[in-house]
Amino acid sequence: MTIFIVGGAGYIGSHMVKQAYLSGYDVVTIDNLSTGHQESVKYGKFENCDIFDTKKLNLLFNRHKPKMVIHFAAFSIVGESIKDPYKYYNNNVSGTLNLLKVMIDNNCKKIIFSSTAAVFGNPNYIPIDEKHTKYPINPYGKSKLMIEQILKDFEDAYNLKYIIFRYFNAAGHDKDGELSENHNPETHLLPLIMQTLRNERKSISLFGIDYDTNDGTCIRDYIHVEDLCNAHLKGIEYLNNSNSESNEFNLGNGTGFSVKEIINNIKKITNSDFLVEEDARRIGDPAVLISSNEKAKRLLSFFPKYDTIEKIILTLIKDSDVQK
Q1: Residue 80, class by beta-carbon neighbours within 10 Å (0-12 exposed, 13-18 middle, 19+ buried)?
Q2: H or E stretch including 110?
Q3: Which residues on neighbouring strands pair with residue 3, listed in sequence order?
Q4: How many other β-carbons are positioned within 10 Å of the β-carbon of residue 94?
Q5: What angle do CA 286, 284, 128 make, to 5 degrees?
Q6: Mean pLDDT in runs of 10 for the chain (324 residues)?
């Protein structure tokens, strides 16, 4: 079965390309390389194409005849979305609408959509399940929620079947060492800490130390990128089941760790020290985000393999990082 992985040259997308290809799917990566890297696409076919390029998209759908699309092609930096909301609504919402229109026109009516915990905003309770109210507090989260609503309307009107996966904090590297995070600029906590550890930056910043948490820093639920990909493989099987309905799942480990706890874990594992500086809160950062993954366990038999923060961190550590 041919699958289009849109945004497959990015961090999560490139890991997904590898896992889907090794699982026997005919994988075609669609990416405009605005933030992705072609060298990260090590499996299957690659097509340089923007999701706004209707003519080329139609050509590619006609040529490859995919049965399903996995959609990762979105801008995802919260702070940037606040400074430049047009960029986020245009790419994330308008671009997705264009992709969906081409899918419907080419009778490709199954999609797995990469959403985010940011659709929930400040949580009313923890852990956050799929029934939690959705009140995003930044344009990034709002753009993703708009797409979720669009998918439901497309199901009603065009019989599109979808799975929405809401990621909490994706982390870690491919266990084979082929793939890693490669953002420019890098915004994710774990790779920023590793850069500090390796003296590639002078310090790691704590953005807010006065949150209502045990140590004053934000708490997040970290899920390994390979576990995310495994959930998507199960999502493919789920959508291919003729009896399956469209659905939505939160993906996390169900456990939260504060920024200080992550930093201290890495210092302990590597027997190292590095400079940590206090900085102001970032606009749009909730204090605590922890997922309930009970629905994914029940319906997808999804059980994260990297189920502790130590296991996730160890996929980032090189022998040279550990001080003897």
Answers
A1: middle
A2: strand 110-116
A3: 27, 68
A4: 13
A5: 35
A6: 97 96 98 95 98 98 98 93 97 98 98 96 95 95 98 97 96 87 76 92 94 94 96 96 90 94 94 94 85 96 94 90 83
Residue of 231, 265, 251 whose CA lies nearest to 293: 251
Q: In this predicted structure, what is the pLDDT of residue 187?
A: 77
Scan for tokens 């904090």, then name that residue: 169
Give the integer Cα–Cα distance in Å for 309 and 107: 42
H-type helices in 139-258, by residue range? Answer: 139-158, 189-197, 225-240
CA distances to 44, 87, 245, 307 from 171, rounded to whole Å, are 24, 25, 29, 12
Would you give the end-to-end CA distance of the chain in angstroms? 49
Say how far apart CA 323 and CA 119 lie, in whole Å: 41
> What residues does 111 pair with on adjacent strands?
69, 162
Q: What was the pLDDT predicted at 175?
A: 85
Which residue out of 88, 89, 140, 167 is catalytically annotated? 140
Give the model's pLDDT for residue 147: 98
Residue 31 lies in a domain: yes
Residues 29, 153, single domain; the answer is yes
**Contact yes or no for 178/18 (Cβ under 8 A):** yes
In degrees, rounded to 5, the angle at the alpha carbon of residue 96 between the alpha carbons of residues 93 and 100 is 135
Q: Answer whether residue 67 is part of any domain.
A: yes
Q: Is 85 helix (H, G, I), strand (E, B) or coil?
A: helix
User: Which of 200, 176, 184 is CA-nearest to residue 321?
Assistant: 200
* Residue 140 a catalytic site member: yes
Looking at the 3D structure of the chain, how many domains does it have?
A: 2
* CA-wise closest residue to 30 among 18, 13, 42: 13
The answer to whether 251 and 293 are in contact (CB under 8 A) is yes
Of 251, 267, 293, the residue at which a domain comes to its end is 251
Domain range for 237 = 2-171+222-251
